[in-house]
Structures are given as structure tokens and as C-alpha cells.
Amino acid sequence: MMHVQISRVSNEVFEIAIRGNSVECNRSSSKYRAVRIADKCWAIVSSNRNSEKELIERAKEIASREGEGVRLADAKMAVGEFRFEKGHFDEEESLELLLDLKKNFEGFVEMILTHERICREIETSDGADAREEKNLTDLNLSVLTKSVASIYVGGVGGLEVVEENYEFIIDEVKNRVRSLERARYLNPLMRGIKMDVILSKETSCAFVHEIVHNLEADVLDRTLEDGNEITVYDDPTDGFGCYNFDDEGVVAKRKCLIRDGRILYYLHTRETAEKFKQEPMGNGRGICTIPKAFESNLFVEKGGWRFDEMIEETREGFVAEGLIKAEIQNRVIYIYPEICWYIRNGEIVCPTIVDVIRIPLRTALKRIKAIGKEYFTRIGYEKGFAISERCPPIMINASVS
Questions:
Q1: How far apart are CA 171 and CA 315, in angstroms?
Q2: Nearest 10 degrees: CA dihedral of 364, 334, 357, 267?
Q3: N or C: which end of the chain has fewer CB within 10 A?
Q4: Domain assignments of the chain as residue spans, ordered by start
Q5: Comparing C-alpha atoms, which of 6, 129, 8 is closest to residue 59?
């Protein structure tokens, strides 16, 4: 049976950017409709000009052409109106906040504050009829002295999202700037050696993020082996990547992906859920593309280790935080930290520049040795989707270079 979905999206974006001696204030808005039809194949058409009737007719014509056929799992579809907390946002207050924040740093400072108001409506031929409104605010701040120290914070709501983190932002960036100025380069004799690395703050979030990439059912290769200790949830209802229903109209639900190192559930679209015979729980993302199985907000259960206990138990290794980038290449997780601290005999010796931390993907969960108690939240956008991870420090066996 042909499946028809109509989405209507409108958003308004306000951005203030301070780059050195430049202040930029920009506002934009957009509205569009998208029709997605599943029949013999997927057909997606979108426009900010054509009528819905025209889009439906075009999509039906494309979807009825030759193809393997698309089958979707039954799901609980969203009905009704949903709103997240709106918060407060004012252009002049936002600019004053950034200018005050800039005074705390030396060197070249770049700050980009973004406030986005999003309205999303969806109707499907099998019962979804829902509307959602939300506001997202985020701040990306970088300071360049000898090296770059950065932080990215944000959440659901208005300017208060940044105001609540004001002192944290200053302390965190200043500490990283000082550490980078004193940092030594990694001893060449240590390159490629396996040792204990305490992934902290952004690096632990990035590690979990890359693990969960391997649980996306539309790209799954099942090479990730079960491990121990770690428990990971995906929760679309709480965090920067929040929504009440996904981009297929499925009601969003919290689900446990990994429990005590054992994989329980994959991230699904309705199409992959049908193939795997699992319940779709709201991770089909993307409106103008085929639905993509993707994370929303990842949450890692805290462990029993204090951060100082992890350091005390490390004979030789590193603490890593700040993130330049993270990726998977050739079945290896690569994490590029901003700064590391060298540990010897249970004590931090000095800040160190480490280019990359490598963890084989297949055995990544087995390499976890301890999970901490303190939480850090990382936010971001990937493939245009708002996401977040909330993770404690994770001690893992890895190689450094």
C-alpha cells in the first residue's frame, strides 16, 4: 500500500557572531513543504512554491516506477500539538552578553550565538497528525593564542541557556588556554603504545557517539562486539536534540541501546524496523531525504569511579578533553583531543599535545576499564540534525600518537 507523508516546516534563525574586532548580526527565515511517498520506491519532493497537491502528484508518479518495494513497520503515530519551553531571547541582551564574555579572554576570540525557532507539522496516510514548536540556543566559542581552545554549549530555550553556563564557559576555556600554553609534545617513544586513557568531557561524549553510529540499522555491519560496564540510552525527549515525534511521525521514546556492555537495540527508521522485526521508537530523521536512522540525545549511566580515583589507578596514561574532531576510519575510532594531561604513577605530571587517540571499533566496548560519576554534556549538529551526548569520564585501553 502506498504510504504518503506531508511535512510543513518553518524556522527563524538569529545569529550574532563576534570575530576579533567584527560584530555580525544576521536574521533569516524559511518555510517549505515536503512530500515523501513510499511505494515501489521512495519518492521525496519539496518546495516553498508548489502546492501540496502538485507535490503529491509528482511524488506519486516517481514512487510508482519500478523498484523493490518499500515496507514499513507498524508504529505508534503522533497526534496533537507539542511545545517545548520557549525561554527568553532578546537581540540587544544577547549582544551585551557576548561583549561582556569576550572581555574575559586574551588573543583572538570568535563567538557565534545562534537562536532558532522551529515549527514542524506532519501528516501521514496511516494516522500521524501532529505539530511541534521548539526553540534552540547555542554558543560556539573559540580562543586562539598559541593554540585554539574552544567550547560549545546550548540547549532548549532562550538566552538563559547561555547565561546559566556563563561562569563555566569562562573557567573551562581559561583552563584550557593555560594548559595549551604549557603543554609539551608527546614523547616520540610513546607513539603507538597502548595505555590507559581517561576520556573526559567532550572526548568521552565523542567516543560514545562513534559507538552508536555503529548501531544505526540502515548502515549496520554487526562487527561491534559486546563488552562490559557501559549502559547507553537514546532519549529524544530530553536534551538539545529533543523532539516529541520523529520525521516519520513516530512517537519518540527513550530506549536502552547498550546495557552492561551488551547491545540490546538498534536505532531504526520504520523501514529498518520492519527488516529487523523491532519496534520503531522514533529515530527516523530527515525530511527532504529518505528517513535516516540517527541518534537524538545519548545518555550514559554513571559508574562508580570518582575522577581522582581513575587518575590514582593509572600507572601511565593520559586524561583527554576538548575535541578537534572524531571519526571512524577502517574500523578504528579516531579521537583528536584539544589537550591531554600525562599521568605517571597515579599523578598528573604535565599537559601534553597528543595528536590522536585510536581505539579499534570491534573491541571498543571490551576495552572499557572504568566509568566515572561526573557528567558532561556535549551538543552539536550532524547531517543537519541537532544532537547531544551526556557522559561521565570513561577509562579505556587505547593507543596514542
A1: 29
A2: -40
A3: N
A4: 3-182, 184-400
A5: 6
DSSP state of 305: B
- For the stretch 90-116, pLDDT in tens is 999 999 999 999 999 999 999 999 999
3-state DSSP assignment of residue 198: strand
Cβ(357)–Cβ(337) under 8 Å? yes
Give CA angle at 189 (184, 190), nearest 5°. 70
- Ramachandran assignment for 346, one of left (phi > 0), alpha (psi -120 to 50 degrees), beta (any other): left
Determine contact, residues 374/391, Cβ cutoff 8 Å: no
At position 215, the amino acid (one-letter code) is: L
Residue 122: its H or E element: strand 108-124
Residue 274 has pLDDT above 90, yes or no: yes
Instruction: Please say whether the dihedral angle defined by the alpha carbons of residues 308, 313, 316 and 319, taken in this order, is positive or negative.
Output: negative
CA–CA distance, 204 with 190 (Å, rounded to integer): 22
CATH dotted code for 3-182? 3.30.2290.10
Report the residue count for the chain: 401
Query: Which grid coordinates are listed for 1?
Result: 500500500
Q: What is the pLDDT of residues 48-69, one digit of tens each?
A: 999 999 999 999 999 999 889 9
The grid cell for 49 is 512554491
Burial group, residue 232, by CB count within 10 angstroms (0-12, 13-18, 19+): buried
Decide: helix, strand or coil at residue 261.
coil
- Which cell numbers hold the place of 111? 563567538
Predicted TM-score (pTM) of this structure: 0.96
Euclidean distance between CA atoms 178 and 339, whole angstroms: 11
Distance CA 333, CA 397 (A): 12
CA distances from 393 to 207, 208, 396 (A): 10, 11, 10
CA distance 232 to 390: 10
Local confidence band at 47 (pLDDT 50, 70, 90 cut-offs): very high
Q: What residue type is assigned to position 347 of the chain?
A: E
Q: Which three cell numbers stand for residue 158?
A: 532562550
Identify whether the C-beta of residue 4 lies closer than 8 Å to the C-beta of residue 45.
no
DSSP strands (E only) in 125-268 = 129-144, 148-156, 184-185, 194-199, 232-234, 255-259, 262-263
